[in-house]
Design brief:
The protein is built from twelve helices and no strands. The protein is mostly helical. It has a domain of 176 residues.
Length: 394
């Protein structure tokens, strides 16, 4: 009897042992991380932005330097100012356009749009409306744009299959032909929706997740770092562009002051040699020069007033840019906080739901376990007693 009871208890324990895995609590937040392929796309797009900035800035500065060394600055002032303005606008507008492309929520959308932007810029300087923008130095802009597009396409081959890469190229070539960049302002629209239509992909299928909390926070950190690096440079270029088109010419002012100083020295020498004639001449000059001096005074006051207005406008522009930056940072923080609140709320709900289910299962199996421990031996003893009583009666 003792051996049969032990055998039964061991069987019950072996049967209940696998159910112990029910005690394992699984906490899943329900938030899907970004696929590794899309994470690689995001990293590549952000790294490409540094190459883009460096290539555009070096090429634009080279064009301005060559124009200055060739004598354009002193010989043809208006032409040099125009060329210098175009180099500044190239840096400002192209880099702002790139920031709008790489800061999209979907890494796939950022990659597609960045590729399209590099192709559009190459076409703009090579065959489009900007093919004569920099005159004899146009080749520098063309070569820089070609290098950027080739660099992007060479690297992107490691992320997509050869067949998909060919499809990407066909779409981009068609899109650039239909929607070229028209001027140096780099006004354009995102190509992602057109790409989805080209691939017959629904917008709901294209973007299924924005990533986990660490991935979202890393994305925001990258955005803030890039804005902090680029904003001072862009503000400086805008101020320089504004100064180029102001009405005050420093060189002409210096020449005028030098001429007045030279004339004054000659008058002093002449007065020392012939005082009487100089006294008569001074009276005549006073009569002749009074209207001129009055006009010069009025003109100077007007220039100073314009300078004050332009300075105030420049200060206002810098203030507006700073306020815009602060508003953008505030919006990003609010969006991140809202996203974190939603994620935390969903996580807590899932945790409590899983804990409730687990506790219910645990209580059920605990009751079954108690039933097996206390009632199974009793039932077994009763059954064995009846068997033995029957054997004795027989």
């Amino acid at each position: 009897m003792g051996f049969a009871r032990k055998l039964f208890l061991v069987s019950i324990m072996l049967f209940a042992l696998p159910s112990c895995s029910l005690l394992e609590v699984k906490l899943e937040s329900g938030i899907e991380p970004l696929p590794q392929e899309q994470l690689n796309m995001r990293v590549f797009s952000r790294d490409f932005s540094h190459t883009f900035y460096s290539e555009v800035e070096n090429s634009a500065d080279q064009i301005a330097l060559l124009a200055s060394n060739s004598g354009m600055e002193s010989a043809v002032g208006a032409d040099f100012i125009t060329l210098k303005s175009r180099t500044l606008m190239w840096k400002i507008n192209s880099e702002q356009a790139l920031q709008r492309t790489i800061f999209q929520a979907s890494p796939l959308a950022a990659m597609i749009d960045t590729w399209v932007l590099s192709a559009q810029m190459n076409d703009f300087f090579t065959n489009g409306n900007g093919r004569q923008l920099f005159g004899e130095h146009q080749a520098i802009a063309i070569e820089a744009s070609e290098r950027l597009q080739a660099n992007f396409e060479r690297t992107i081959k490691g992320f997509v299959k050869p067949k998909e890469f060919t499809q990407y190229q066909a779409f981009i070539a068609k899109y650039v032909t239909e929607y070229p960049i028209m001027d140096i302002t780099f006004t354009r629209r995102s190509a992602f929706n057109d790409w989805l239509a080209f691939r017959n992909i629904s917008e709901f299928e294209a973007v299924t997740t924005f990533g986990t909390v660490p991935e979202v926070m890393s994305d925001i950190s990258d955005r803030m770092a890039m804005i902090a690096d680029q904003m001072p440079k862009i503000l400086t270029w805008k101020a320089e562009l504004y100064a180029l088109h102001s009405n005050i010419n420093a060189d002409e002012l210096q020449k005028t002051l030098a001429s007045i100083s030279d004339t004054s020295a000659r008058f002093q020498t002449l007065m020392a040699k012939s005082p009487e004639m100089m006294a008569s001449l001074a009276v005549d000059l006073r009569k002749e020069l009074t209207p001129l001096l009055t006009q010069l005074s009025e003109s100077t006051d007007d220039k100073l007033a314009k300078l004050s207005i332009e300075r105030q406008a420049l200060e206002q522009m810098v203030k507006n840019e700073r306020l815009a930056l602060e508003e953008m940072v505030a919006r990003e923080r609010v969006a991140a906080a809202a996203n974190l609140d939603d994620i935390s709320k969903h996580t807590v709900e899932v945790v409590f739901k899983e804990l409730t289910n687990t506790l219910k299962s645990l209580i059920l199996y605990f009751v079954l376990f108690l039933g097996v421990i206390f009632f199974a031996p009793l039932g077994l003893g009763v059954w064995l007693g009846k068997r033995m009583a029957l054997k004795r009666a027989a």
